[in-house]
Design brief:
By secondary structure, the protein is mainly alpha-helical. Helix content is 39%, strand content 4%. Strand 1 and strand 2 form a beta hairpin. It is extended, with a radius of gyration of 24 Å.
Amino acid sequence: MTNPSHLRWPVSGRSARAALFTVIGATGFVVLTACGGGGSGSGSDRSSAGDSDVASIASPGKAVGTPTRTTDPDAGRPVIRLDSSAEETNRMWDSWNACLRAKGGPLKGAPTTPAEKAGAKACASKEPITPPEMDPATNPDYSDDLRVWVKCLNAHGVRVTMVGSSDYSFDSSQSNPPNFEEIDTACQVKAFQK
Protein backbone atom coordinates (compact mmCIF):
# COMPACT_ATOMS: atom_id res chain seq x y z
CA MET A 1 0.00 0.00 0.00
CA THR A 2 1.34 3.41 -0.81
CA ASN A 3 1.20 6.48 1.32
CA PRO A 4 -1.27 9.23 0.46
CA SER A 5 -0.13 11.45 -2.38
CA HIS A 6 0.28 14.48 -0.16
CA LEU A 7 3.26 12.89 1.57
CA ARG A 8 5.34 11.98 -1.47
CA TRP A 9 8.35 14.13 -0.63
CA PRO A 10 9.60 15.13 2.82
CA VAL A 11 9.45 18.83 3.60
CA SER A 12 12.03 20.66 5.63
CA GLY A 13 11.20 23.34 8.14
CA ARG A 14 12.71 25.81 5.65
CA SER A 15 9.37 26.74 4.12
CA ALA A 16 7.74 27.15 7.51
CA ARG A 17 10.56 29.43 8.70
CA ALA A 18 10.29 31.48 5.53
CA ALA A 19 6.55 31.87 6.06
CA LEU A 20 7.10 32.87 9.68
CA PHE A 21 9.66 35.52 8.69
CA THR A 22 7.28 36.82 6.04
CA VAL A 23 4.48 37.17 8.60
CA ILE A 24 6.82 38.87 11.09
CA GLY A 25 8.10 41.26 8.41
CA ALA A 26 4.59 42.10 7.24
CA THR A 27 3.48 42.72 10.82
CA GLY A 28 6.45 45.02 11.40
CA PHE A 29 5.66 46.92 8.22
CA VAL A 30 2.03 47.41 9.26
CA VAL A 31 3.07 48.62 12.73
CA LEU A 32 5.62 51.05 11.33
CA THR A 33 3.28 52.49 8.74
CA ALA A 34 0.47 52.77 11.27
CA CYS A 35 2.77 54.71 13.60
CA GLY A 36 3.87 57.04 10.79
CA GLY A 37 0.75 59.06 11.42
CA GLY A 38 -0.85 61.54 9.18
CA GLY A 39 -2.63 63.64 11.76
CA SER A 40 -1.47 67.08 12.80
CA GLY A 41 -2.38 66.75 16.42
CA SER A 42 -4.26 70.06 16.37
CA GLY A 43 -7.51 68.86 14.92
CA SER A 44 -7.21 71.06 11.83
CA ASP A 45 -6.43 69.76 8.39
CA ARG A 46 -2.91 70.79 7.38
CA SER A 47 -2.42 70.07 3.74
CA SER A 48 0.61 72.15 2.87
CA ALA A 49 4.15 70.86 3.31
CA GLY A 50 5.19 73.95 5.30
CA ASP A 51 2.61 73.28 8.03
CA SER A 52 4.00 69.85 9.03
CA ASP A 53 5.09 69.21 12.62
CA VAL A 54 7.87 66.88 11.48
CA ALA A 55 10.89 67.90 9.43
CA SER A 56 11.53 65.75 6.40
CA ILE A 57 14.10 65.52 3.67
CA ALA A 58 13.17 64.55 0.17
CA SER A 59 15.15 61.53 -0.87
CA PRO A 60 15.41 59.88 -4.24
CA GLY A 61 14.10 56.38 -3.70
CA LYS A 62 12.51 53.70 -5.74
CA ALA A 63 9.25 54.62 -7.31
CA VAL A 64 6.25 53.34 -5.46
CA GLY A 65 5.11 50.06 -6.88
CA THR A 66 8.48 49.10 -8.33
CA PRO A 67 8.76 45.32 -8.01
CA THR A 68 11.62 43.96 -5.95
CA ARG A 69 13.18 40.53 -6.02
CA THR A 70 12.22 38.31 -3.14
CA THR A 71 14.74 36.33 -1.17
CA ASP A 72 12.13 33.77 -0.14
CA PRO A 73 13.17 30.46 -1.75
CA ASP A 74 9.56 29.25 -1.58
CA ALA A 75 8.07 32.23 -3.42
CA GLY A 76 6.00 31.09 -6.37
CA ARG A 77 5.98 27.41 -5.42
CA PRO A 78 2.62 25.62 -5.60
CA VAL A 79 1.06 25.09 -2.17
CA ILE A 80 -0.97 22.02 -1.28
CA ARG A 81 -3.83 22.89 1.06
CA LEU A 82 -5.38 20.48 3.53
CA ASP A 83 -8.53 20.46 1.42
CA SER A 84 -6.78 20.08 -1.95
CA SER A 85 -8.31 17.26 -3.96
CA ALA A 86 -6.22 14.29 -4.99
CA GLU A 87 -6.45 15.53 -8.59
CA GLU A 88 -5.09 18.97 -7.66
CA THR A 89 -2.33 17.46 -5.54
CA ASN A 90 -1.34 14.94 -8.21
CA ARG A 91 -1.24 17.68 -10.86
CA MET A 92 1.24 19.66 -8.71
CA TRP A 93 3.46 16.62 -8.07
CA ASP A 94 3.26 15.54 -11.73
CA SER A 95 4.40 18.99 -12.88
CA TRP A 96 7.40 18.87 -10.55
CA ASN A 97 8.28 15.29 -11.56
CA ALA A 98 8.04 16.18 -15.27
CA CYS A 99 10.46 19.04 -14.69
CA LEU A 100 12.87 16.75 -12.83
CA ARG A 101 12.76 14.24 -15.70
CA ALA A 102 13.35 16.98 -18.28
CA LYS A 103 16.17 18.66 -16.34
CA GLY A 104 17.92 15.51 -15.06
CA GLY A 105 16.90 15.86 -11.43
CA PRO A 106 16.51 12.87 -9.11
CA LEU A 107 13.15 11.11 -9.26
CA LYS A 108 13.70 9.37 -5.93
CA GLY A 109 15.63 10.58 -2.93
CA ALA A 110 17.97 13.51 -2.63
CA PRO A 111 20.22 14.62 -5.49
CA THR A 112 23.71 13.10 -5.34
CA THR A 113 25.47 13.95 -8.60
CA PRO A 114 26.20 17.47 -9.86
CA ALA A 115 23.74 16.91 -12.75
CA GLU A 116 20.98 15.82 -10.33
CA LYS A 117 21.70 18.81 -8.09
CA ALA A 118 21.45 21.17 -11.08
CA GLY A 119 18.19 19.53 -12.16
CA ALA A 120 16.74 19.76 -8.66
CA LYS A 121 17.72 23.44 -8.44
CA ALA A 122 16.17 24.18 -11.84
CA CYS A 123 12.89 22.60 -10.73
CA ALA A 124 12.81 23.93 -7.16
CA SER A 125 10.11 26.49 -8.01
CA LYS A 126 7.77 23.68 -9.11
CA GLU A 127 8.15 21.50 -6.00
CA PRO A 128 4.87 21.57 -4.09
CA ILE A 129 4.87 22.78 -0.50
CA THR A 130 2.90 20.43 1.73
CA PRO A 131 0.59 21.95 4.32
CA PRO A 132 2.56 23.14 7.37
CA GLU A 133 -0.07 21.44 9.54
CA MET A 134 1.17 18.11 8.16
CA ASP A 135 4.80 18.81 9.09
CA PRO A 136 5.88 17.63 12.57
CA ALA A 137 8.56 20.35 12.57
CA THR A 138 6.01 23.16 12.27
CA ASN A 139 2.96 21.72 14.02
CA PRO A 140 3.42 21.28 17.79
CA ASP A 141 0.16 19.27 17.89
CA TYR A 142 1.19 16.96 15.06
CA SER A 143 1.11 13.73 17.12
CA ASP A 144 -2.36 14.45 18.48
CA ASP A 145 -3.63 15.52 15.06
CA LEU A 146 -2.15 12.39 13.49
CA ARG A 147 -4.00 10.19 16.00
CA VAL A 148 -7.29 11.92 15.08
CA TRP A 149 -6.54 11.40 11.38
CA VAL A 150 -5.75 7.68 11.85
CA LYS A 151 -8.88 7.19 13.97
CA CYS A 152 -11.01 8.91 11.30
CA LEU A 153 -9.51 6.77 8.51
CA ASN A 154 -10.14 3.59 10.51
CA ALA A 155 -13.74 4.66 11.16
CA HIS A 156 -14.23 4.90 7.38
CA GLY A 157 -12.76 1.47 6.59
CA VAL A 158 -9.16 2.46 5.86
CA ARG A 159 -6.83 0.33 7.96
CA VAL A 160 -4.00 2.48 9.29
CA THR A 161 -2.01 2.05 12.49
CA MET A 162 0.13 4.47 14.43
CA VAL A 163 3.86 3.76 14.49
CA GLY A 164 5.32 5.62 17.43
CA SER A 165 3.95 9.08 18.08
CA SER A 166 4.58 10.69 14.71
CA ASP A 167 4.31 8.06 11.99
CA TYR A 168 1.75 5.66 10.57
CA SER A 169 1.50 2.54 8.44
CA PHE A 170 -1.20 1.36 6.04
CA ASP A 171 -2.31 -2.27 6.34
CA SER A 172 -1.11 -3.78 3.07
CA SER A 173 -3.31 -6.87 3.44
CA GLN A 174 -6.44 -4.81 2.72
CA SER A 175 -7.29 -2.63 -0.23
CA ASN A 176 -8.56 0.87 0.33
CA PRO A 177 -12.22 1.71 -0.30
CA PRO A 178 -13.01 3.09 -3.77
CA ASN A 179 -13.58 6.56 -2.30
CA PHE A 180 -10.28 6.56 -0.38
CA GLU A 181 -9.14 9.95 -1.69
CA GLU A 182 -12.32 11.68 -0.52
CA ILE A 183 -12.11 9.94 2.87
CA ASP A 184 -8.45 10.87 3.24
CA THR A 185 -9.05 14.55 2.42
CA ALA A 186 -12.05 14.79 4.78
CA CYS A 187 -10.09 13.12 7.60
CA GLN A 188 -7.08 15.38 7.05
CA VAL A 189 -9.22 18.49 7.27
CA LYS A 190 -10.99 17.15 10.38
CA ALA A 191 -7.73 16.24 12.13
CA PHE A 192 -5.30 18.98 11.15
CA GLN A 193 -7.38 22.09 10.43
CA LYS A 194 -7.66 24.44 13.38
